[in-house]
Amino acid sequence: MIAHYAHAPLPYMLGSLFCVALVTGLMPGLLPQNYRFPEHFRSIFIGMIGATIGAKITWDVLAQLPQVALSMAALTLFVPLTQWLNFLIFHKIGRYDRPTAFFSGSPGGLIEAIVSGEAAGADVRILAVQQFLRIIMVVTCLPIGLSLYYGHPVGSAAGMSLNRTAVGAEHIPEVLAVAILGLLIFRRLKIPASQLIGPLICAAIVTLSGLAVIQAPSWLISGCQVVIGASLGTRFAGMNLGRLVRATGLSLLSVGTMVAVGLAMALSIAPITGQHMDVLLISFSPGGVTEMALIALSLNANPAVVTLHHLYRIILTVAMLGVAKRRQWFPAPAERQDPGQS
């Protein structure tokens, strides 16, 4: 609730994560040794998040594809380029091991990166911190910068919301059914980050076919964020202040690099596409889908176009994570060394 009233990005996930991490840090004996949050329980909530994202893929969004073909092509270059640059930053400068550096450098897909990174042997504590810092810095610094540039608030600071009408509990059975169906099907197919991608694809199919309405009330999404954040918070036992300061510095360098690459691409293709440079910059910024769409709404731009770019960025990112996992680019380290002590 503190994070919510402080207008923090992803307040319920961040708030529960930091609260649980703080409690487990101050009371190390609170949880049993080698405690792991129940994975099957967490998967259901991740699946519902995936279902709500997949429901955003509508025919209206797909109808925008011909207008954004060039910018989408540029985004296809943006994702692997920034992934590689981030890997160099975290591995060479941050001295993280290869899996931790690779998944920390993911330019999107917070939950997917954490889930896939955990399976690949990454340090989940560092990985979660770096991914949250990426989102925090982008969704706070970019709106502030654009607000200063335009002289008025943009995004959620301007009171914008993507949910124009209140959503009740009547569609929860559909959300839960799609989430469970996606989990069961795609887990058997061994799809990377199947907890999120399976329900996402199922929800997109259901939405596009008109079989059902997939709409989750805001309190349900908030509850899912709380569970996911709390599950991540249990992994932070032993995280010291030095690591956190180091992660913040690396995140500043990483986010600055990604925004610079996005700005360069936006300036390059804006004259060709006819799209406004600021809208392209928002589309290339590796922040939260909702916040970037809200900024577009504040600028009288089409939030569907921005959402389409960010959904495509997430899909590209997850595909890259899956390729890296299948080809075993980074064997899990037998013994992990604290990068702050090397």
Automatic annotation (TrEMBL):
GO terms, biological process: regulation of gene expression
Segments passing through the bilayer: 12-31, 43-62, 68-90, 132-151, 171-189, 196-214, 220-238, 250-272, 292-312
Keywords from the UniProt entry: Membrane, Transmembrane, Transmembrane helix
InterPro entries registered for this protein in UniProt: AbrB_dup, AbrB_fam
Pfam name, any one: AbrB
GO CC entries: membrane
Name of this protein: AbrB family transcriptional regulator
Annotated source species: Pseudooceanicola sediminis
Organism classification: Bacteria, Pseudomonadati, Pseudomonadota, Alphaproteobacteria, Rhodobacterales
